């Protein structure tokens, strides 16, 4: 795994120098297509991502809350978990999440692999245990054969499960947006309004936080720098991880890639529209009140960040066997 990851990094760095000469020098860089080094593992991870049998109810999969037909999110204010429980926080997109410094709004998981174990055992999400999820998978002959071919052993464990899911998630990048084409030198890729929006985004200081290839995900920042943010959410942000008071209300800066698809916005899902989110960001983070025209320009730019969505054949999940523990959809 580690060796392969390094392999990807090296490949990207080499590709980086190859196109560096033609790419515009901007605080945002074009997204590169995913390089798949182990297609069997990615395919297995895709099945697991779509498999509701990793949940206690047998009904909730990763895709329930990170719907790949809807920008990798659920488009709900906060997510719905086991037993229709109201979740505490907005579901961030899984698209391009491999590019982030850490996972979750407060960064409590360092890697995608570490993250992937969380929701299965979270009582408010999939409400299972790792042991029970492994029992289910181990009882399904189709999975046993596939784990054997990918990992060389038919003994399934949570480490292999999360490693396969992470390999699939690493392929969920969205290159070729209009903005990427402009970054790569195509002057016609943006219209006048979108370009004006980008200039305003850059010159007013949004790029201080929303930068890099994912237009975010590079740091933790305070929500409400100039003016405090009012919310009923109890999420305290980065301080939940570091224990430091100065990290209170610091959140991972979300990626703005595909932001047109990932409404509603902010960790509490309180902003319904992009216009609202941009207005709040300008005022709270930069002390700037934008005109309606300016907000429209920035929104037009943000919509150029929608790239090619992952497209693949729907995975067919191997059927349960007579030994598979039955799902418990209404278990408390
Ligand atoms: C019930 C809804 C739900 C399910 C099911 C679910 N997630 Fe999530 N996911 C969320 C929410 C909500 C968050 C944000 C939690 C937080 O930051 O505290 C999140 C965060 C994430 C993140 C971090 C993204 C980022 O930008 O920080 C990744 C990656 C992710 N989930 C992948 C998965 C995978 C893989 C599965 C299946 C094993 C899964 N999720 C199942 C709701 C869900
Ligand atoms: C000081 C750092 C900082 C600056 C400057 C900043 N942002 Fe943000 N932005 C954040 C953080 C942190 C969040 C997440 C806040 C939360 O969820 O509570 C965020 C969230 C967003 C979101 C919602 C994304 C989502 O998926 O929920 C949008 C849209 C956005 N910012 C746009 C902008 C625009 C446009 C500007 C310039 C007017 C800007 N930001 C300036 C740090 C910043």
TrEMBL record:
GO terms for cellular component: periplasmic space. The keyword rRNA-binding does not apply. Residues 40-148, 192-306 form the Cytochrome c domain. Binds 2 heme groups per subunit. Pfam families: CCP_MauG, Cytochrom_C. Heme c 2 binds at residues 206, 209-210, 281. The keyword Metal-binding applies. It comes from the Bacteria. Binds 2 heme groups. GO terms for molecular function: cytochrome-c peroxidase activity; electron transfer activity; heme binding; metal ion binding. Its cofactor is heme. PROSITE patterns: CYTC. Residues 1-20 form the signal peptide. It is found in: Periplasm. Keywords: Electron transport, Heme, Iron, Metal-binding, Oxidoreductase, Periplasm, Peroxidase, Signal, Transport. Heme c 1 binds at residues 62, 65-66, 82. This is Cytochrome C biogenesis protein CcsA.
């Amino acid at each position: 795994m580690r060796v392969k990851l390094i392999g990807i990094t090296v490949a990207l760095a080499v590709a980086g120098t190859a196109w560096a000469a033609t790419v515009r020098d901007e605080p945002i860089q074009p997204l590169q297509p995913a390089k798949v080094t182990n297609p069997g593992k990615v395919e297995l991870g895709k099945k697991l991502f779509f498999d509701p049998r990793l949940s206690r109810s047998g009904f909730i999969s990763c895709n329930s809350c990170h719907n790949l037909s809807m920008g990798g999110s659920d488009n709900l204010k906060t997510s719905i978990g086991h037993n229709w429980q109201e979740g505490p926080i907005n579901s961030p997109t899984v698209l391009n999440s491999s590019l982030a410094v850490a996972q979750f709004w407060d960064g409590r998981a360092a890697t995608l692999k570490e993250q992937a174990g969380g929701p299965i055992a979270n009582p408010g999400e999939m409400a299972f245990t790792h042991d029970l999820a492994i029992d289910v998978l181990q009882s399904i002959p189709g999975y046993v054969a596939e784990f054997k071919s990918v990992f060389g052993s038919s003994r399934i464990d949570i480490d292999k499960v999360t490693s396969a899911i992470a390999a699939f998630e690493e392929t969920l990048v969205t290159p070729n947006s209009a903005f990427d084409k402009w970054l790569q030198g195509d002057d016609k890729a943006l219209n006048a309004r979108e370009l004006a929006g980008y200039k305003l985004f850059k010159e007013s200081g949004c790029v201080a936080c929303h930068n890099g290839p994912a237009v975010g995900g590079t740091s933790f920042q305070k929500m409400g720098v100039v003016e405090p943010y009012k919310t009923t959410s109890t999420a305290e942000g980065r301080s939940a991880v570091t224990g430091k008071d100065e990290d209170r209300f610091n959140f991972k800066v979300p990626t703005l890639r595909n932001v047109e698809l990932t409404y509603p916005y902010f960790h509490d899902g309180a902003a319904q529209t992009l216009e609202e989110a941009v207005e709040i960001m300008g005022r709270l983070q930069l002390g700037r009140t934008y005109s309606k025209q300016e907000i429209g320009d920035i929104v037009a730019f943000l919509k150029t960040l929608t790239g090619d969505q992952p497209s693949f054949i729907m995975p067919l999940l191997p059927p349960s066997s007579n030994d598979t523990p039955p799902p418990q959809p209404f278990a408390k």
